[in-house]
Amino acid sequence: MSLKSTYEFISGFKEVVRVDILHNFFKSGILNNFQIGVASKTVTLLKNYGLILKTQNNSIVILSEVNDRFTTSSFNGEICLNIQLFPKDKFFLNYTNLPYDLVGSLNFENKFKDNLHPGKFVDKKCITKGRGKFRLDITLKFNESHGFFGNSSNGTKKDILYKIIFNSRSYFLRYNLVTTANNVDKYYITNEEDEFKLKGFKKRTLSSKKIVYSITLKDKIKSMEAYDFRHFLKKDDDFFKSYLVPLNHPEKQNISYCNSDKVYYADVFINID
Predict the structure, then answer these.
(1) What is the pLDDT of residues 139-153, one digit of tens each?
(2) What's the CA angle centered on 164, arms 161 and 167, to 5 degrees?
(3) Where residue 2 falls among pLDDT bands split at 50, 70, 90?
């Protein structure tokens, strides 16, 4: 088989190309929750050139069989491999800095220096609109000068490393009080050190027609797998001064685009009844 799901050391093979897939949303900095596929033409090329395509955590690895038969002129010329990746996380576009309504594919080519995209991060320039399941299309071209295969190769050419780097989305954090009470003026948001006091919850009607009272932090927050801040709901109350509710961190499924405000929000709901 030319396609393997995991990477293990294989005797008689050497690494030719590696693509690392990174995402700063994750604490580890890596993105590894994807499904891989290859075009039928690429499957044939892998077989003909003695190549094995594998995944290793967040990397795509192409291994080449060490065999003198690949150093003949029959193997001269460029090799072009087409690989598809399908993110398994249905909320991928919620926390990734790309259009939330992206339909089509992200296209990557090894025509840039280190990354498979022109900028520091994957951006709109990589988008090709189309139909079908959202995917990443990767085109890898190598061996133009017969460095790996053909009668000019000597087996000493170093493997090539490329990267695909995703940037996490920034949003406004919005807290929503869920209550049947008519007056929420005494409630406010603060942090562990009481460094700020955010008051002024405003009545808001959700698309479900449910009434909540909302307040939004002034500064944007970068979406992350794990946050290092803690916020609390407190209450100005002479009779209940110890009122304190630890607030949940925003979750990726609650990040959404607001068409009327033209911004992204992450909603946290707090039931105070």
Answers:
(1) 999 887 656 776 665
(2) 145
(3) very low
**The one-letter amino acid at 163:** K
User: 232 and 175 in contact (C-beta within 8 Å)?
Assistant: no
Report the residue count for the chain: 273
Residue closest to 84 by CA, chosen among 136, 29, 161, 32: 136
Domains of the chain: 13-166 (no CATH), 171-271 (2.60.40)
143 is written with which tokens?
């061996």
CA separation for the pair 220, 264 (Å, rounded): 9
Q: Is 223 in contact with 255 (CB distance < 8 Å)?
A: yes
The rounded distance, in Å, linking the Cα atoms of 17 and 108 is: 15
Classify strands 221-222 and 170-178 as parallel, antiparallel or unpaired. Answer: antiparallel
Cα angle 84-89-91, degrees, rounded to a multiple of 5: 120
- Report the half-sphere exposure of 9 (CA within 13 A, side-chain side): 1
